[in-house]
Amino acid sequence: MYDFDMIVIGSGPSGRRAAVQSAKIGKSVLVIEKGRRVGGVSVHTGTIPSKTLRETVLNLSGWRERGFYGRSYRVKQDIGAGDLMARLHKTLDHEVDVLEHQFARNAVKTARGEARFLDPHTIEVAGEGGEIETVTGAHVLIACGTRPFRPDYVPFNGMSVFDSDEIVDLPKLPRSLAVIGAGVIGVEYATIFSALDVAVTLIEPRATFLDFIDKELIDEFVHELRDRNVALRLGAAVTSIGLDPDERPVCKLADGRTVQSDMLLFAAGRVGATDRLNLDAAGLAVDHRGRIAVEPKTLQTAVPHIYAAGDVIGFPSLASTSMEQGRVAACHAFGLEPPPPPEFFPYGIYSVPEMSTVGMSEEEVRRREIPYECGIARFRETSRGHIMGLNNGMMKMIFSVKTRRLLGVHIVGEGATELIHIGQAVLNLKGTIDYFIENTFNYPTLAEAYKIAGLDAWNRLPRV
């Protein structure tokens, strides 16, 4: 009856995982990608580019060695935009090559063009040259992702005012940068540029930011930002954005202050890239941010054979969770019952320093009225920390007083996004503080912080 068993709109993390999963069980699959190359936002303007830029900056700036050699130390004295772009393009080429090979060996077909629903099972694909192809699918997964929110009052020009997709192609490095929006994207880019000794001002209308992260971790993070002269303008809404005669952005804030900088990054949210899908023809609607509502366990939309996954469905909008959502949607579409997802998954924020968290924050434990105790470890307390020249970085672990079980792990500092997986495993396996006390960790490693924090908490727990 249909041309394909599964049609996937978008080739980002959720789209590629759904396509490959469907192909693995013998289904015919078509992936529609409107970009010139597969990979979606994650590969071309989002996850991979921002993390590649971060790694390049840390390497060329000598950031990781400054604990030994001083703040003026640099591997390369004059770092330009071209230095950042060279590594970025090489990484993206590799990512695309790997993905294209993955599709080829699993017999996943691809079509380049813009998708548009004609009815719930029929999709029109419009190519760049004006050619039109119509395909039908028994099942459809919408994995089109998001694009930056671009309000009319922001004078985007691609030279001094950028959104979060454009910033990866910046023409030159600024001497000063204003970032509007202290969400994950804004914080990551603000700290990456700060590591290049760019004067950064981070503007956020709310009095707090990254509220899903443990407050003590944020306090530690803010302390380090202030130590690096990152200016924080919290609780200050932007009333207007203009350009001076030299095309430099000028932001006026509600509290009367003005922020003038060489460049401006507007990173205050993203919207679902659904406006050109003609979702009405499929019987679907979106919210004010262009996002599609789904049934959380199956990823089904209001139309049962149409699924949606990834950033287009909203929180948590992580590449890691998007991949799993794509797999779950494909399994459900073809009658496979995937195992229930683990209770806890980690968040990773690739700022400088990076942050990662899994499980409950101290604020959440308090709201649930669970008797608890915390253990803290500073990276400078580990031999590995001394070897690396780390002056900052901490791990916080939360344990139940009643059951001694681990409730949450929160890390800020070098290697946080890698270290978190030890805590994730113990947490999902319902492990207790005894694991950290009794087990041996490689020496010298930053993972020793688990034992230090565990012992710190054990000293505070009431004796049985």
Give an account of the 3D structure.
- With 464 residues, this protein is α/β, with parallel strands linked by helices.
- It is built from 13 helices and 22 strands.
- It is globular and about 65 Å long.
- The protein starts with a strand and ends with a helix.
- The mean pLDDT is 93.
What's this model, at a glance?
The mean pLDDT is 93.
Question: How do the strands and helices of this protein lay out in sequence?
Answer:
Layout: E1 4-9, H1 13-24, E2 29-33, H2 40-44, H3 47-61, H4 66-69, H5 81-105, E3 109-112, E4 114-119, E5 122-126, E6 132-142, E7 146-148, E8 161-163, E9 176-180, H6 184-194, E10 199-204, H7 215-227, E11 231-234, E12 238-243, E13 249-253, E14 258-260, E15 263-266, E16 270-272, E17 306-308, H8 319-333, E18 347-349, E19 355-359, H9 362-367, E20 372-378, H10 383-388, E21 394-400, E22 406-412, H11 416-428, H12 433-438, H13 448-460
Parallel strand pairs: 1-2, 1-6, 2-3, 6-17, 8-15, 9-10, 9-15, 10-11
Antiparallel strand pairs: 4-5, 5-6, 7-16, 12-13, 13-14, 18-19, 19-22, 20-21, 21-22
CATH topology of the largest domain: FAD/NAD(P)-binding domain
Number of helices: 13
Distance between the termini: 67 Å
Looking at the overall shape, the CATH architecture of the largest domain is 3-Layer(bba) Sandwich
Supply the CATH superfamily name of the largest domain. Answer: FAD/NAD(P)-binding domain
Largest sheet: 7 strands, mixed
Low-confidence stretches: none
Rg from alpha-carbon coordinates: 24 Å
Shape: globular
Estimate the mean pLDDT confidence.
93
Strand content: 15-25%
Task: Assign the structural class, choosing from mainly alpha, mainly beta, alpha/beta, alpha+beta, or little secondary structure.
Answer: alpha/beta
**Multimer state:** single chain
CATH class of the largest domain: Alpha Beta
Q: How many domains make up the coordinates?
A: 3
Q: Could you estimate the helical fraction of the residues in percent?
A: 25-40%
Number of strands: 22
